[in-house]
C-alpha cells in the first residue's frame, strides 16, 4: 500500500491504484459518491489543467491500508485523463495529496464536510465567468473544458446575459431553467416579462414533474413530440408518393 510522505505533496497515480477508496472496517463511514460514473467533462478538464486541489489520504492504523478520504472522484477521473494523455504521447499527471492523521470518525467528518460545505456558482455567475473568458480570447470549446460541460451548455448559459432582468432573476430563483431562459431570451423584452409572470403564477407551490409540466404549457415544448407507431400507420393509409415511402421506411417496411 502507498503512503504519501509528509514532505511530499504529489501522489503517483500508479501508486494510488492500490489505495482503497474509503476506510473498509465495519465501523467506518462511506458514501455513495464513490460509485458516481465517470464524467467526460471532468476528465477533459483534468487532462488539460491537472488536479488543482489536493486530495486527502489517511493510513488506517488497524489494517495498514492507505485510504483516499477526500478526492476520490479526482483520482478516478485522473486515471481516465492519463489514458488520454498517454495516447497523445504526454506524461501522466500526478495528484497533489495531503496526509491526515486521526480517527476514523474524524475522517468521516472530512468526507462529509468537503462536499457539503461547497457553494456552487449561480447560473448567472457562471454566465458572467464564461463571458469574461470569451473576452480574454478563449473560444467556446476552451470554455467547455474549463467548466466541464458541453459547448451547447456554454451557449445556453451565455444566453442568460441577453435576457431581461426578470428572466435572470427567475433563473436564480429556480423558477425557470437555463434552457428555458434561452428560449425566453429570443422573445421581445415585454413578452419575456409576461411569460415569467405567467410561469411564476402557474408553478407556485409545485415541484418536480408537475412544475415542469406547467412550465412547458406556458413556454411550449422546444422539441416536437414523436409520433407513435400507431399514428404513423394511420397516416400511411392516406399517404402517397415519397411521403408514403418515408413513412414505410420509418416503420421498417420494405419500400
From TrEMBL:
InterPro entries: Chromosome_partition/occlusion (IPR050336), HTH_ParB/Spo0J (IPR041468), ParB/Sulfiredoxin_sf (IPR036086)
Any Gene Ontology CC annotation: chromosome
Listed transmembrane segments: none
Pfam (any one): HTH_ParB
Gene3D superfamilies in UniProt: 1.10.10.2830
UniProt domain ParB/Spo0J HTH: residue ranges: 122-199
GO process annotations (BP): chromosome segregation
Highest taxon, organism lineage: Bacteria
Protein name: PRTRC system ParB family protein
